[in-house]
Design a protein that fits this description.
The radius of gyration is 28 Å and the shape is elongated. α2 packs across α3. By secondary structure, the chain is of the alpha+beta class. The mean pLDDT is 84. The protein has a four-stranded antiparallel β-sheet, with helices on one face. A hairpin with a 2-residue loop joins β2 (71-79) and β3 (82-88). It is built from five helices and four strands. The chain is 49% helix and 19% strand. The two termini are 49 Å apart. The protein has helices at residues 2-31, 55-66, 94-105, 116-119, 131-143, and strands at 42-49, 71-79, 82-88, 109-111.
C-alpha cells in the first residue's frame, strides 16, 4: 500500500508540473509580442563592362569600389566582364556608386538595370506549395 501511495503522489506531482508548464507556455504565447525586424538595407547591384576584365584591372576596380562609402568591402565579385557588389541602400544607391566608380576610373561600362517584368517577381527559393513551407508558416502564425 505504501508503494501505491508513493506512485500516486509522484504521478500527481508530475501532472501538477505539466499543468504549470503548460500554463506558463500559454501565458507566454498570449503576452509575447512578435519580433519586429528592421527593413533590410543591403542591396545587390551589378555593373556590366564592355570588355573582359583582367586581374590587374579587377584589383583596381575593387579598390575603387571599396573607397566608395556604403559598400560592404568584402562582397565585391568580379567575373569576366561583370562586377557584382553589395551596398547599404540607406547610405547610397546603385546610380551613385556607378557614377562615383566612373569618375574614379573612366571605365567603359554600364549600370545593370533590372527589367520591369523581373522587378516585381518573387525570388523566394522555397517551394511555397510544399507541405514543409505550409507547416512552418502555420506554426509561425501561431506564435506571431
Amino acid at each position: 500500500m505504501k508503494i501505491n501511495k508513493t506512485i500516486k503522489r509522484g504521478l500527481l506531482a508530475a501532472l501538477v508540473l505539466m499543468v504549470l508548464f503548460f500554463g506558463i507556455l500559454i501565458f507566454h504565447i498570449v503576452t509575447a509580442k512578435p519580433a519586429v525586424y528592421e527593413s533590410p538595407n543591403l542591396q545587390i547591384s551589378r555593373i556590366d563592362f564592355k570588355s573582359n576584365i583582367d586581374s590587374v584591372e579587377a584589383k583596381k576596380i575593387c579598390s575603387d569600389l571599396r573607397s566608395i562609402n556604403g559598400l560592404t568591402s568584402d562582397s565585391i565579385i568580379v567575373k569576366r566582364n561583370v562586377v557584382v557588389y553589395f551596398h547599404n541602400n540607406k547610405i547610397t544607391n546603385s546610380k551613385k556608386v556607378y557614377d562615383q566608380l566612373m569618375a574614379k576610373g573612366h571605365y567603359d561600362a554600364q549600370r545593370y538595370i533590372l527589367p520591369a517584368n523581373l522587378a516585381n517577381k518573387e525570388v523566394c527559393p522555397i517551394d511555397q506549395n510544399s507541405f514543409s513551407y505550409k507547416m512552418a508558416k502555420s506554426i509561425n502564425q501561431i506564435f506571431n
